[in-house]
# Entry
Amino acid sequence: MTSVYKGVAHPWLCDVMGHMTTRHYVAMFDDASYHFLFEVFGWSGEQAKKDRVGWADVKHVIEYQAEVAEGDILEVVAEFKKLGTKSTTILYTMHNLSKSEVASTLESTSVLFDLEARKAITIPEEMRVKTLAFTAADN
# Structure
């Protein structure tokens, strides 16, 4: 697993009941995904502008396992679950370091996306090879 995000559940990220709202879990997972894609592929938003190739999320499965309260210290780690022809499935796990527990998981499926044609494209062999170090490390 690769650490891809660290953050704090600030009071302004919490709802009237005092726990972090769904929209901010998703934002933290989204930020983590950019870090993971950069770590694995060297891909960034700048690269997307240059090559006109990006990533499009097509499926999210989120499980909330423990409450995150204001002030909690959070870390998200990522691991590959599956590499398909056009897609990746990555598991993100949010750890609440303050409480030594898993707060939430997100299993995310994303496709490599041609930003001009607006459709999924095949993941090139060069990118596939880069995932090997990460899939081997996770097993």
About this structure: The radius of gyration is 16 Å. The first strand starts at residue 2 and ends at 8. The chain has a mean pLDDT of 94.
